[in-house]
Design brief:
Layout lengths: L2 H17 L3 H12 L5 E7 L5 E7 L2 H15 L1
Antiparallel strand pairs: 1-2
Length: 76
């Protein structure tokens, strides 16, 4: 990846963390404590017009394997 683009993405991530300080701690806690087979992930988005979009999924073994691989890639 282009080094300039990587620097820009890092800056954007820092801005996101500043604007939404609870998101990353929540994701960390969820991945460490709640991400196990049988857990339910439930996501909803409410548009400015009030429309609610929602999805949920039950975590499967294959999902955990994928998450583990993503984590390993991030650490390298």
């Amino acid at each position: 990846m282009n080094p300039r683009k990587m620097m820009e993405l890092a800056r954007m991530q820092q801005e996101f963390k500043k604007n939404h300080p609870k998101v990353f701690p929540f994701l960390k806690a969820a991945s460490e404590k709640a991400m196990q087979e049988g857990s339910i992930i439930d996501i909803s988005v409410t548009t400015p017009a009030g429309e609610v979009l929602r999805i949920n999924m039950k975590v499967r073994t294959e999902d955990l394997e994928l998450l583990k691989e993503w984590k390993n890639m991030r650490e390298k």
